[in-house]
Amino acid sequence: MRFGLQVNPYFAGPTGNPWDAVAKAALALDASRFDSLWLYDHLLYEGGYSGHPYPEPVLESFSTLSAIAAITNRIRLGQLVIGTPYRNPALLTKMATTLDLISHGRSILGIGAGWHKREYEAYGFGAFEEVPVRMKRLEEAVRVIKKLWTERPASFEGKFYRLDRVMENPAPVQKPHPPIMIGGSGEKVTLRLVAQYAQWCNVSGDPDTVRHRLEVLKEHCERLGRPYDEITRSNYCTVLIGRDEVEVAAKRERLRDFIPVNGALIGTPEQLIELFGNYAKVGVQYSIFRTPDWIDIEPLQLFAERVIPALAEA
Predict the structure, then answer these.
(1) Tally of structural domains, the chain
(2) In the 8-state DSSP scheme, what is residue 158?
(3) What is the C-alpha to C-alpha distance for residues 300 and 12, in angstroms, rounded to an integer?
(4) Which of 114, 252, 281, 314 could form a disulfide with 83 if both were Cys (CB 3.0 to 4.6 A apart)?
(5) Which range of residues forms the domain containing residue 25?
């Protein structure tokens, strides 16, 4: 089992500049056993959301990942996940290609339908579309992205997007293209899109729920003739780690507002090894998590030193 950290939420940190905290964490992760670093794709958090109780600074994901790519050497970089309605997918492809070049082939493109209605409308992007429309937009966007990365020139005519003989240049470092993650747990549409187009899935839930969702993904793969093992199976969760029960209890109290309503994996390294082991047993190969005290670095190092090695063969 491999692990990635999503930096979430952002904090201004001691310098008052959230980038300084992100850069420090990125360098620590790059020197650790973590495999990847992820950012959410948001513009606005005003507080009042599960796990995001207070107004917080927000950095644009691609700009920040490009800066991280320039100061790191090993760790893979991705978005968990891009909100499709926020960008034209042809422009998004150019941005993703640029990140892959800056990182020398360490990027993963995470994409989803988007959900943050208040954010979308606050920035004047228009009326936020209903879920069925956003899912159709997501599928069309993924088709545009794959065409630009695999066909030269690329042309496309859809309901939402079009391409007119685009010669995407330069090409990304990774061949045939950077891995595409389609994030979300929707069984009828999202997991079908994963089976049809993506190299990664990312689902959430307790181990039994994740087991079921991966079974649904496998059924989609079988129906579409896609080898199930071509897809990296990842899950997403929130984690709090402490060196001992006393520290765990103190963190649970201090950070209780940042624990989402659907819960978190909380415990000592030994307890977390068992909890993540339960996910490995149901088919999860890769776990990406957020931890509200990432800015302190120490919990990241503790997880990397104690938990990751114990699950390397899980």
Answers:
(1) 1
(2) -
(3) 18
(4) 114
(5) 2-311
Q: Where are the alpha helices (DSSP H) in 151-234?
A: 190-197, 207-224
Query: CA 145 to CA 166: how far, in whole Å?
Result: 12
Whichever domain contains 204, its CATH number is 3.20.20.30
Taking each helix axis as running N to C, give the angle between helix 207-224 and helix 269-281, from 0 to 180 degrees, rounded to the nearest 10.
30
Question: What is the DSSP-derived secondary structure letter of residue 56?
Answer: B
Identify the pLDDT of residue 263.
87
Q: Where are the beta strands (DSSP E) in the chain?
A: 2-7, 36-39, 76-79, 82-83, 107-112, 154-157, 162-166, 180-183, 200-203, 232-241, 265-267, 286-290
Residue 139's alpha-carbon distances to 1, 99, 195, 197, 206, in angstroms, are 29, 22, 12, 9, 27
Contact 256, 234 (CB under 8 A): no
- Whether the upstream peptide bond of residue 176 has omega within 30° of 0, thus cis, is yes
CA-closest candidate to residue 311, choices 283, 282, 274, 268: 274
Low-confidence ranges of the chain (pLDDT < 70): none
| pLDDT at 278 (0 to 100) | 98
Q: What is the pLDDT of residues 44-56, one digit of tens each?
A: 999 999 999 999 9
Other C-beta atoms lying within 10 Å of the C-beta of residue 114: 22
Task: Provide the Cα torsion 26, 32, 34, 38; round to 10°.
Answer: 0
What pLDDT shows up at residue 178?
98
220-237: pLDDT as tens digits = 999 999 999 999 999 999
| Number of Cβ atoms within 10 Å of the Cβ of 121 | 12
Contact 20, 13 (CB under 8 A): yes
Per the structure block, which two tokens stand in for 22? Answer: 């992100």
CA–CA distance from 183 to each of 113, 199, 251, 269, 294 (Å)? 9, 11, 29, 27, 22
Q: Sign of dihedral through CA atoms 238, 79, 222, 161?
A: positive
